[in-house]
Amino acid sequence: ILFHWAKPVVAVGTDLMWGTLTKSVGAVVHYRQGTVNLKLVMRLAIGSVPGALLGIWLLHHLRERGVNIDAIITKILGVALICVALSLILRMFRGPRPRIAGGEDAIRGPEWLVSVVGAFVGFIVSLTSVGSGSLIVACLVLIYPNTPLRRIVGSDIFHALILVGVSAAGHFGLGDLNR
To answer: CA torsion 91→95→100→104, rounded to 10°?
Structure first.
């Protein structure tokens, strides 16, 4: 996108397709290692799949109206990358994760919060291909303070396979892949 080698929407669609392939390997590895919390994955997917479908629908709708979706994607991509950078900086300065009562899978806040995070990130991922790992992990570390990082990462990668797969399929349907 930066060097104008591909239109932004094609770069996003192609990246999502490639991400589906690479995340499938990571998902299998983490599942075999027992680092996937399927309940957490389902909570995320309940929000992220509709969020991704909404993003794909929005792209289709804007394209039908003649809107320059490449300009919109470029702006949203810039905001998403800034959010990812800020989340990484905040995690770097944050001290040890505070624990709460209730064991490894204890959740800080209501359970539906995970699905809301999933919906927001699903929407952003379908438009930019950014956030399926970095934004979700940052949020899960805060929501599940007792869960070991390896289980958060494993669950995130397994979930990302679903989210990125749905988003890639949507972009494929829109013809937004570099074939």
So the answer is: 60
